[in-house]
Amino acid sequence: MPRVKRGVIANKRKHNLRKHTKGFRHGRNSKITRMKEALSHAFAYMFAHRRKKKSDFRTLWNTQINAASRENGLSYSVLIAGLKKNNIALNRKILSEIAQENPQTFSKIAAKAK
């Protein structure tokens, strides 16, 4: 049986590790064991924060809607309750965009919710 030399495979694996750890500090971009550990943590944080990003944006939209509704003399909860009561189906992302880009339109929506 011929001898199998694995230099190419090992170098490719290290190269891929180095590609992912570019910019890491304190040996976490040059020492193989530290690179693997840093990457496992980085991937775990990436996974968790992709989920967290969704709730962060929803919180931001709610805050923006609240600020805009208070300018129109309503609290956030009264605005949302009024929209549901009048069957105005706008989600929070769209309401936030309207509040930021078209305050006059948002004022009309808030007037309907009163």
TrEMBL record:
Give the protein name, as stated in the record: Large ribosomal subunit protein bL20
What is known about what this protein does?
A: Binds directly to 23S ribosomal RNA and is necessary for the in vitro assembly process of the 50S ribosomal subunit. It is not involved in the protein synthesizing functions of that subunit.
- Annotated organism of origin: Candidatus Azambacteria bacterium RIFCSPLOWO2_01_FULL_46_25
Q: Which UniProt keywords apply?
A: Ribonucleoprotein, Ribosomal protein, RNA-binding, rRNA-binding
Q: Which NCBIfam families match?
A: rplT_bact
One Gene Ontology MF term:
rRNA binding
Q: To which protein family does this belong?
A: Belongs to the bacterial ribosomal protein bL20 family.
Q: Name one GO biological process term.
A: ribosomal large subunit assembly
Which InterPro entries does UniProt cross-reference here? Ribosomal_bL20 (IPR005813), Ribosomal_protein_bL20_C (IPR035566)
Among Pfam families, the record links this protein to: Ribosomal_L20 (PF00453)
Give the UniProt entry's GO cellular component terms.
ribonucleoprotein complex; ribosome
